[in-house]
């Protein structure tokens, strides 16, 4: 948690670099008032709720895939962990700019398994996944959005894919994000049940995994590596989350 609070200062310095979303992008949601939560990461969901009115904004947990020794997938020298972090930071700032309470579990290039000193397991991967799940339990989280990049042996596989739990709210969250990303990528992909994935099996809150594109596809890789396009990808993810929260 110390890394989270320390690194957030550097992240927030870059906040002015992101454009503020126009009102219509937020699907009609009013701009935050002067009483909106601060731009610092919310680390105690219960405290946040107790200090606001009964309809306080839900708490969103952004799970940044991989990190540190775990680079994730890669192609042509582009590492998934770097793409995940760049896009997740932008989603975080966009949501915070609209007044949403957001937690991001990685703000630098390190493995979350390094912070897990409570699970007696030799598997670094298991400790990493358990640490991600643990944060969703320690904080009063409403939804979990895990951000990743995809890979396929077929170079023509492209576009975003959102995976969901076998649960109705998770499905609706996935569909909202998928629809927003399909508009950006001009694709018609459907959501997918993420049956084998740890996060989707063990996180109790509605959770989804957002595969922002295929690093194995040249066009997707170029888009995902471009900071301007990363902002557009982040904006589509934020739009999907906001739309879901406005109707559920």
How many strands, which pairing sense, and closed or not: the largest β-sheet? 6 strands, mixed
Oligomeric state of the chains present here: single chain
User: Any idea what the radius of gyration is?
Assistant: 17 Å
Low-confidence parts: 1-55, 113-121
Structural class of the secondary structure composition?
alpha/beta
What does this entry look like structurally?
Strand 2 and strand 3 form a beta hairpin. This protein has eight helices and eight strands; from the N terminus they run ααβββαβαββαβαβαα. Helices cover 42% and strands 15% of the residues. It is of the alpha/beta class and 248 residues long. The model is unreliable at 1-55 and 113-121 (pLDDT under 50). The protein has a six-stranded mixed sheet. The protein has a two-stranded antiparallel ribbon with strand order 2-3. GO terms for molecular function: N-acetylmuramoyl-L-alanine amidase activity. InterPro entries: MurNAc-LAA_cat (IPR002508), N-acetylmuramoyl_amidase_3 (IPR050695). This is N-acetylmuramoyl-L-alanine amidase. Pfam families: Amidase_3.
Quick gist of this model?
This protein has 248 residues and is of the alpha/beta class.
What is this structure's SSE topology?
Elements: H1 2-13, H2 45-50, E1 59-64, E2 74-75, E3 78-79, H3 80-97, E4 101-104, H4 124-138, E5 143-150, E6 161-164, H5 168-185, E7 192-193, H6 198-202, E8 207-214, H7 218-225, H8 227-247
Domain MurNAc-LAA: 139-242
EC number: 3.5.1.28
GO molecular function, one term: N-acetylmuramoyl-L-alanine amidase activity
List keywords for this structure.
248 residues; alpha/beta; 6-stranded mixed beta sheet; two-stranded antiparallel sheet; 8 helices; N-acetylmuramoyl-L-alanine amidase; EC 3.5.1.28; MurNAc-LAA_cat; N-acetylmuramoyl-L-alanine amidase activity
């Amino acid at each position: 948690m110390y890394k989270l609070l320390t690194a957030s200062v550097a992240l927030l310095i870059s906040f002015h670099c992101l454009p503020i979303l126009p009102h219509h992008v937020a699907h009609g949601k009013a701009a935050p008032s002067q009483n909106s939560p601060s731009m610092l990461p919310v680390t105690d969901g219960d405290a946040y709720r107790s200090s606001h009115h009964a309809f306080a904004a839900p708490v969103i947990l952004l799970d940044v895939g991989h990190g540190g020794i775990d680079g994730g997938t890669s192609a042509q020298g582009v590492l998934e962990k770097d793409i995940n972090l760049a896009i997740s930071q932008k989603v975080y700032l966009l949501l915070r700019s609209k007044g949403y309470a957001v937690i991001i579990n990685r703000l630098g290039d390190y493995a979350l398994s390094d912070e897990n000193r409570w699970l007696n397991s030799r598997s670094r991967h298991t400790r990493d996944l358990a640490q991600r799940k643990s944060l969703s339990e320690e904080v009063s989280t409403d939804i979990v959005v895990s951000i990743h990049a995809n890979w396929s042996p077929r170079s023509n596989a492209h576009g975003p894919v959102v995976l969901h739990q076998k649960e109705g709210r998770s499905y609706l969250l996935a569909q909202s994000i998928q629809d927003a990303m399909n508009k950006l990528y001009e694709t018609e992909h459907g959501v997918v049940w993420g049956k084998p994935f740890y996060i989707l099996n063990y996180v109790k809150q509605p959770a989804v995994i957002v595969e922002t594109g295929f690093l194995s596809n040249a066009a997707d890789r170029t888009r995902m590596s471009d900071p301007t396009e990363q902002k557009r990808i982040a904006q589509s993810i934020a739009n999907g989350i906001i739309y879901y929260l406005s109707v559920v």
